[in-house]
What we know:
Helices cover about 45% and strands about 25% of the residues. The protein is an alpha+beta fold. Helix 1 packs across helix 7 and helix 3 (about 80-95) packs antiparallel against helix 4.
Amino acid sequence: MSEATSAVIGAGIVSFLPGISAARKDKVKLALAMAERATETAYREGLVEDWLAYYRNQLRYMGWDAVSAEEVHWPDERRARQADQVLETIAATAGEHFASAVSLSMERLLANPSVLRELERRASERQHFQLLPCAPAGANRVDMVLYHERDTRSAFSAGFISHKRSHRNVRAELVRFNILAFENSYLPKVKEQVVKVSLQRILDYAI
């Protein structure tokens, strides 16, 4: 199956555009869950202050490489509709098709209370929110926008997806995942228990 699907991993929403097989989606989600798990552990132990930098390095180690990068900083006076700001950033970083996938994923998430509550809880705890739309990029590769938004704990209270926020600390970049490199170089070194615990962090939902 290669239809559009979504999942919540940590404080992020992962969206898959059509054209990515179920097996490749599983590998992408596993890699993201493992990076999220490693980063949360280091963060809780006080080993890192910049969540995104550490998370990004974890992804790079697993086979994600930058295609291009863009840092976005919106001044306070520019406050259009909440969803428009987020989608505009993603579209500017990688194209409208990525933004469309995110829009659908957020819309369907609002209709899934249990998964939504878990995302809100994690975002509030970590004081950040991520959107991770993925698209096919040729043989054994997937492109993904890494959208990371940091704010105060109160900014990520219940219902924050539909509320206005400051958008004063937003970063977005396009990265490419080499699935074969992950499978052949990284995954064989990982303990089975690490994989099992990481998989428990993935909350799939229908779109």
